[in-house]
Amino acid sequence: MLVLGDAHAADPDNRRALFAAYREADADVALQLGDLMYYDLPKPTWFIAGNNEDFDTIAALRNGLVSNSDVRNATLLASTTVDLDGVRVAGLSGNYAPTQYDRPRANLVAERRRHFTREDVERAMALESVDVLLTHEAPHGLPVAEDYDVGCSHVDDLLSVLDPELCLVGHHHQHAETALGDTRVVSLAPTWERYYMLDPDSLSLTWFETPVE
Hints:
CATH architecture: 4-Layer Sandwich
Number of helices: 4
CATH superfamily: Metallo-dependent phosphatases
Strand order of the largest sheet: 4-3-2-1-11-12
Number of strands: 12
Strand content: 25-35%
Shape: globular
Radius of gyration: 16 Å
Helix content: 10-25%
CATH class: Alpha Beta
Structural class: alpha/beta
Order of helices and strands: EHEEHEEEHEHEEEEE
CATH topology: Purple Acid Phosphatase, chain A, domain 2
Largest sheet: 6 strands, mixed
Distance between the termini: 22 Å
């Protein structure tokens, strides 16, 4: 199973790297960790929304309304799950903003639609038997180099409740690993640097350099 970090594929060079990763991996299905920004994909892909997206498209995908040539093989995981190759994958879309967290999702407009809300987290907490959790916001303890303190307590709580074997994190454009309880947490490098393969039996993750096109 192909796993991809941030893509920022509205940029033509990044889009070429994204498609090169799909071709090189030659996997049947893919997971993607947000900041995708291009939704006409070569293989069935389940992704979470990041903080950089076409938010009109994301809103439509949340509501099952998209049916056009600009969206193909792209399914949003928004406090929902999918079973792929015997692996139950859940996703929390968006990033955290304390000023928006307690607002109803329906009240978020324009760029504020990038954030997750309390209702999103609570709906995700009700999911069952999750093996792999996808988040764009990191839990505490992930050793990525940023100029701010990394870690969101709401993601910590979600991991505590769901207790997945593996949590995959986007956003930081760095490969880093830690553990939170029994959960292995991995921050993924961006797609223009690496792509990853997930073994559905062991949930082991192997990375490869994305070929230069």
